[in-house]
Amino acid sequence: MDCRKFIEQQIAQIRQTVGNGKALNALSGGVDSSLTTVLGNRVLGDRLQTVFIDNALMREGEPQRVVNTFAKIGIRVEVVNARQEFLSALSGLTDPEEKRHAITDTFYSKVFGRIVRESGAKFLLHGTILTDIEETVSGIKRQHNILTQLGIDTEQAYGYAIIEPLKTLRKDDVREVAKFLDLPSEITERIPFPGPALAARIVGEVTREKLDTVRKATTIVEEELADIEAFQYFAVLLNDRATGIRNNKREFGQIIVIRCIESTDARIASASELPWPKLHLICERIINEIPDVNRCLYDLTPKPPATIEYI
Ligand code: XMP
Q1: 49 DSSP assignment
Q2: Which residues have any ligand 1 atom within 6 Å of their CB?
Q3: Nearby residues of 277 by Cβ (< 8 Å), 6 or more positions away
Q4: 258 forms bridges with which residues in the sheet?
Q5: Greater confidence, 142 or 9?
Q6: What single DSSP character describes residue 303?
Q7: In a mutational test of the pocket of ligand 1, which residue from 59, 133, 308 has the highest number of ligand atoms less than 8 Å from its CB?
Q8: For residue 233, what are the β-bridge partners?
Q9: What is the pLDDT of residue 271?
């Protein structure tokens, strides 16, 4: 693709739409929202307010990591604590689409609505990419960031208009443009992480305890697979339990799934052929370091028929 032309077009579009106004954007630290932030910042400078919403569903140390990475490239990121709002909205929900809907609603309507009102911004810059739109519109899965394509009038519903500079790109294109703009490799090489965050990796109800468990497992999987060239890797906490034995005592413990996949754009994917000793090591660390987890599985299922995430 012609990165220079794409960037010029998007910069012109943002400039024309926002005019002398103010815009806001939510940065998650992933490559899509990072590229959106950098494009917006180039056009709007201080008239773009970038926030990181701490929704209690992020990986270990994520808010600070994102703030530090962007401080290095001269972009200030404000962390907004919305942990309790998200946990309350998810309480009692087990259905995947209901969980997604609760996250979308809390994000756009409650938390973002409030920040936008306080800031006076009329525009929200959004890192939606083409695959998100296609899968949502075709009814496969409601990606949490799709609104206008579902017929939601955001100005009326939430009080702001949405600008989506990346909506014609797939993940590999996004990385190419980000590299073209010389963004640091910690951004361009960052493995994808879904909008619903760790809630997409908990089957069943999302609770603080389950989040702690899947967060610890995620840290282990990411540490151990950091040197693997895969599209995405992560841990999932199932809603089932299984019998085990620890210290000569019967234990009905939790089950973690390791997922590691090969893909170029997330539309189709296959399980990575990980070295056996690596899988053993991850399994051993998970069952030894995380209380109450006594089983660890490796998911071999391709997409389709599975999706990459579990909700
Ligand atoms: P699935 O599970 O649909 O995932 O096969 C495809 C890719 O998209 C990521 N993903 C999301 N990204 N908002 C996002 O921004 C979402 O709601 C969402 N759900 C899944 C997933 O991690 C994978 O890379």
Answers
A1: E
A2: 132, 135, 141, 143-145, 192, 194-196, 200, 232, 266, 303, 307-309
A3: none
A4: 235, 298
A5: 9
A6: B
A7: 308
A8: 260
A9: 98
Model confidence pLDDT, tens digit, residues 202-221 = 999 999 999 999 999 999 99
Distance between CA atoms of residues 99 and 91, nearest Å: 9
Mutation to probe ligand 1, out of 144, 309, 311 (largest number of atoms < 8 A from CB) = 309
Kindly report the average pLDDT of the chain as a whole number: 93
Q: 169-189: string of b/e by CB count within 10 Å (b at 16+)?
A: bbbebbbbbbbbbebeeebbe
Q: How many whole angstroms from 128 Cα to the centroid of ligand 1?
A: 11
Place of tokens 């309480």: 91
Give me ligand 1 centre to Cα 194, in Å.
5
Partnered with residue 80 across adjacent β-strands are 53
Confidence of residue 150 (pLDDT cuts 50, 70, 90): low
In sequence order, what DSSP letters do the residues of 212-271 get, joined into one string? HHHHHHHHHHHHHHTTS--SEEEEEEEEEEEEEEETTEEEEEEEEEEEEEE-SSSSSBEE
Task: Please determine, for residue 267, whether its predicted confidence score (pLDDT) is greater than 90.
Answer: no
The overall pTM is greater than 0.85: yes
Integer distance in angstroms from the first to the last C-alpha of the chain? 32
Higher pLDDT, 48 or 145: 48
